[in-house]
Description:
Its cofactor is heme. The chain is mainly alpha-helical.
Amino acid sequence: xxxxxxxxxxxxxxxxxxxxxxxxxxxxxxxxxxxxxxxxxxxxxxxxxxxxxxxxxxxxxxxxxxxxxxxxxxxxxxxxxxxxxxxxxxxxxxxxxxxxxxxxxxxxxxxxxxxxxxxxxxxxxxxxxxxxxxxxxxxxxxxxxxxxxxxxxxxxxxxxxxxxxxxxxxxxxxxxxxxxxxxxxxxxxxxxxxxxxxxxxxxxxxxxxxxxxxxxxxxxxxxxxxxxxxxxxxxxxxxxxxxxxxxxxxxxxxxxxxxxxxxxxxxxxxxxxxxxxxxxxxxxxxxxxxxxxxxxxxxxxxxxxxxxxxxxxxxxxxxxxxxxxxxxxxxxxxxxxxxxxxxxxxxxxxxxxxxxxxxx
Length: 360
């Protein structure tokens, strides 16, 4: 869907070529997470230290902090050490915000093409993001670096520069937002449902004890996985998804031509009472049932059909929660009502505020 909205080429290759490109993209996610786990842990601990320094009465702007954390994580893991500089992250975040806001609204309602000022701002921001990516692609070609980033996997594959640019742009745009909103909604639900937070804290203590957070032990956080799955479902994190039709298809008497963008109303399916008992209740324990997890997987939210950007967000959010919940009680602000805004990725209409208190 993002390729279509950005007016990028779909690839135009054969089914096997497009499958190879998709596999390369997925491997890039796996390799960048594996190579940069220590970086992800460091960024999580930096946020923890910041929150530990706050007085217990201080209101924390959760959405703002999660977006900043996601931007730092994604830019360094996708594009490398250039984004250790906070000013580079701020520039990227500004351009990202301009592009994403128009993708989520301007293209869908047709208003972008009717407003020349907005269209120029969008095109300038997109051009600046593409310029940054082109420079990084050029820098990484034919050289070895100690830090393996997402772009490296694409550069090492059999892709041309335009394909590398498109795939790295799409991953950067989507991963920042999906990661930020998954972190935000997960913490919102934990502050609202104290018994869920208590159970997650107990699992984190049981798995890690006094030891460090490691990739091997992260895999043991089964309840945390269920919390994140239920967060995606209850928040309707991605209410719409889309897929380009690889080959011509047919539904009843209707022909779906190759290269047609097919939309899926996931927000409806995720809260269908025929599939999900008490669909509006936040209940991570529902995922103890293997059939429920299979249903969730079939929608592309886990397992082999999982969206790569969401898989990235799951890992980032799991590490962050492991660090935060071990040391902090996450608390809601009394009287706050969080209204939901449904776009390509679901967010809160206004800032979501929380408070924190030290466990020890």
